[in-house]
Specification:
Length: 478
């Protein structure tokens, strides 16, 4: 058996096999033996007593079976590329009886002593066991379990068949401290209690998932460059409507040792959420998550998170309300920043105790001292913070900082996207000579511009940066 073409072609490994059959006055008898890898074998039998070609299927009895012991399970990796290192023992004992028109199956399948790797999740499943047995009423009973890390899960349920198109499934999954991710970015054990019901085309998933402890350290992709807005992705065929309609309602709760560190945030997470997902709708959430004993690092300074809440009130899961406060204490001064609004459009506000000008509050947050006496490099740091952090009235605040530094222009120049924004600092060195320096808010690209007025109508401009050039400009006013 082979599939694919050229270098991508794959073949199903197999050994020798044989088929013997005999048709005589007593009917049809057939025996088959299929060789697989090494010593693994499959055997099958089929008997049609009194078989005569052309006989009505309703009256033709049938007896048969399929048995096998298979230890070389690597062939599974050909069909499921996400797993590797599959090992174990698969035992088959399936029997058929009844008539050709209405056959009755008796299924007995066992998977034992099994283990496998899931490279994408970084986990190894061990002590994997699974059994599928016939039950009264034409049902199949399913039981199984597996171990991962220090925990395990257990599965039980049943499948009901009227025919190949009319079937149902009911599964229950319970576990404790089952490791689902073990990567540099995340170590995540879970304690699930889930129920799955399938009645095509509808799937219902309900229950709860508790995360007793975890380590989450996501990689920082803030410097990644996204595709240009004029990029159009063309697929071979238009997207088709999904066949399955998945309805999900889950309770997610966090334990006492869920640690997060990334994007400048470090602390313990707590709280619980109810997640609801319906076909054709955005995933919704209700509940609250908190940051406990946390800190936030920005511009080289660590701020203590005195309050940190992410509040979900039944809206989209990617746009919760935010209620957070981070402070820095210097002697008798407490300077802080409040974060409110929603995740997609947050609002930041500076405050202090005792009360002081916003420029001094920002200076205490960034430098640990008042604005007076800040050096040029420190002033540039404050200017970038005032504009990039999105503080309420940030442009006006940046202007006041610029005035205190003796600058004639402080502004933010935009580009096609927010990532192109740059802070512009300008100064007249003489009545005719103006120079400004721009530095990216989200990258390290910088540009130096000079403009010199040769006369009332003529001026000379030059730019030094990623590109270097000069222009001679003539201006006509009407």
């Amino acid at each position: 058996m082979a599939w694919g073409e050229g270098e991508g072609q794959q073949r199903l490994p197999r050994g020798e096999g044989e088929v013997d059959w005999r048709l005589d006055a007593t009917g049809l008898q057939a025996r088959a033996r299929f060789g697989l890898l090494e010593q693994d074998r499959l055997t099958a039998q089929l008997e049609l007593p009194g078989f005569v070609p052309g006989v009505a299927p309703e009256t033709q009895p049938i007896e048969g079976g399929l048995q096998g012991d298979i230890r070389q399970l690597e062939v599974i990796e050909l069909f499921v590329p996400a797993i590797t290192g599959v090992e174990g023992l698969l035992q088959l004992d399936t029997r058929i009886r009844g008539s050709l028109a209405a056959p009755e199956f008796s299924v007995g399948t066992r998977l034992s002593e099994a283990a496998l790797w899931v490279p994408a999740a970084g986990i190894r499943l061990e002590d994997v066991a699974l059994s599928l047995d016939s039950a009264p009423g034409g049902r199949l009973q399913l039981q199984g379990g597996a171990r991962s890390g220090a925990g395990r899960i257990d599965l039980n349920g049943e499948l009901g068949f009227r025919n190949l198109r009319d079937w149902t499934a009911r599964l229950a999954l319970q576990g404790e401290d089952f490791l689902v991710l073990d990567l540099p970015e995340a170590h995540l054990p879970v304690t699930p209690d889930l129920q799955l019901q399938v009645q095509p085309p509808r799937i219902d998933l309900t229950g709860s998932v508790h995360i007793p402890q975890a380590r989450l350290e996501p990689r920082d992709f803030s410097g990644a460059v996204g595709p240009s807005r004029d990029v159009v992705v063309v697929t071979d065929s238009p997207d088709e409507s999904p066949r399955w309609q998945v309805h999900t309602r889950l309770q997610l709760s966090l334990g006492d040792a869920v640690m997060f560190e990334g994007y400048g945030l470090s602390g313990r997470l707590a709280g619980q959420l109810e997640l609801i997902d319906e076909p054709g709708q955005l995933t919704r959430a209700s509940g609250e998550l908190q940051v406990v004993d946390g800190s936030y690092t920005a511009y080289g300074q660590a701020l203590e998170i005195s309050r940190g809440r992410v509040i979900y009130s039944g809206g989209p899961v990617d746009d919760p309300a935010i209620d957070a406060t981070a402070v820095r204490r210097v002697d008798e001064v407490t300077a802080g920043i409040r974060l409110g609004g929603y995740l997609q459009q947050p609002e930041l506000e500076l405050f202090s105790r005792p009360s002081m000008a916003e420029a001094d509050v920002l200076s205490y947050l960034m430098l640990g001292r008042p604005m007076a006496g800040a050096s040029g490099a420190e002033g540039q740091l404050l200017l970038r913070a005032a504009t990039a952090m999105g503080v309420k009235g940030g442009d006006a605040l940046a202007g006041r900082i610029g005035e205190s530094l003796g600058l004639d222009e402080v502004s933010v120049s935009g580009g096609e996207t927010a990532q192109d924004a740059a802070l512009v600092l300008g100064k007249y060195l003489s009545p005719r000579l103006y120079v400004n320096y721009s530095v990216g808010l989200f990258d390290s690209l910088s540009t130096l511009n000079l403009r010199y007025e040769l006369s009332r109508r003529w001026s000379l401009e030059s730019e030094v940066g990623v590109e270097t050039g000069a222009d001679l400009l003539f201006n006509i006013e009407r």
